[in-house]
Amino acid sequence: MTDSTSDRALQTRIVHPEVELAPGFESFVTPVMRGSTVIFPNTAAVRTGSWRDDTQWRYGLQGTPTSAALAQRLAAIEGGKYALLQPSGLSSISNVYFGVVKSGDDVLIPDNVYSPNYDHGKWLAEDFGVSVRRYDPMIGGGIADLIQPNTSLIWMEAPGSLTMEVPDVRAIAAAARARNVITAIDNTYSAGLAFRPLELGVDISVQALTKYQSGASDVLMGATITADEAIYLKLKRARMHLGLGVSVDDCSLVLRSLPNMKVRFEAHDRSALALARWLKTRPEVVSVLHPALPDCPGHETFMREFTGAGGLFSVVFDARYSIEQIDAFVDALDLFAIGWSWGGAQSLAMPYDIAALRTASQWPYGGMLVRFYVGLEEEADLRADIERALTSALG
Ligand SMILES: *Cc1c(COP(=O)(O)O)cnc(C)c1O
Measured from the CB, is residue 254 less than 6 Å from ligand 1? Predict the structure, then answer.
């Protein structure tokens, strides 16, 4: 301790400690670097910096080395250049809206979209002078006919996480690019592992990191990923004004799960596909909507563009079963919990009445849909659980 500081009071020395640590500590762990205040080296650095500049740390809300390390890994997974983190998947969706849509603009949203995304669009339509139209997710290049001079954003989801239609992302992105319309895809389903939309011409990929990236049902976070600097800066500006910071402790949890995400994804995929194939043989089931199986609209696109499917699929029950019977089936499941979200180790099931969610496309089934998320339990136990619940509720 230098002479000038040693005569300061203990309290001051506790507030401004002179810590001397042994050098040379190394581990595999990204340090949790917290900070709201970021210390500038001098006043000149305060005056010369800009929010656009990623090489200067300015304020904890914009990120710390911990969040930046996570963002970099996420950009790499998707083949993007820039990733921004938001405190939930839904706030990532909101960041896209506020980044690229202004009053007077028109937005196209597919019928298979995550429904809070559509609700967000409706809010902008009601209160912010934006027009929002829905389209049939199977429209492909036909989207060109829907693009208006004021269309500024086209959303996609591949597959839709309830109804599982796989849109022709390549064709929609090409039609949008030809008219200078920005495209954004909710790519949560594939975690960026099994599908790389930026390489097919999509401008922005959105991830709900709450799902596979967290992997333990304990973190809420989202990301927007792009390879385009101008779009990145639009998103970054909106994120700054909206104050969408993330907790570095949460980033640390996601960083902890990321190395085993691919192995988990493949394990979910194997069990889910086996259960989906088996459910197709059951007399209670009319259709199994798993994109790797032919019942699913867009199956060919999926086989062409995706390398895997993960743990989600949906089952359409025969119309002879009432909502109450299907609810009783879901209630009778033991290993499948009832709850929103997915991506953790535990299996989930949720019943839906899809016809009520549709506007731009016809839903071809009369029966109820149950969306399954297949966790990391033994597949044989999950099968036995479903079989028992089918017999007790519908048998
Ligand atoms: C869960 C989910 C979101 C939203 O993520 P949150 O972190 O729960 O806000 C968005 N899109 C899809 C497809 C999702 O499954």
Answer: no
